[in-house]
């Protein structure tokens, strides 16, 4: 198994109360989120398919493939930076050897997040 990490999101440790923690797991069976149904929102210019999770206990966005791994990483990075700039905590799950990435915004109690024009 080969792991690659593309850190492109700036982390401002002085002005940000965010804590960055990286955990890695490898399982021989898929996580339940990997089997969750999705509905396509759009396909961006880099060929990355962006979908919302359906019938899953938490709201989230799935990013799939694209023209290159770089297109996928740039799309997820841009989305992560958007959440970070709006002080929205989030989790990232990388699946299928990096071909699918799930972005899971964390919501404060009673608040809603408007993301990509969709209420999640």
UniProtKB/TrEMBL annotation:
Taxonomic lineage: Eukaryota, Viridiplantae, Streptophyta, Embryophyta, Tracheophyta
A single GO BP: glucose metabolic process
Annotated InterPro entries: GDPGP, GDPGP1_C
GDPGP1-like C-terminal domain span: 32-107
Gene Ontology cellular component list: cytoplasm
Organism: Coptis chinensis
Alphabetized GO MF terms: GDP-D-glucose phosphorylase activity; guanyl-nucleotide exchange factor activity; hydrolase activity; nucleotide binding
Protein name: GDPGP1-like C-terminal domain-containing protein
A Pfam family it matches: GDPGP1_C
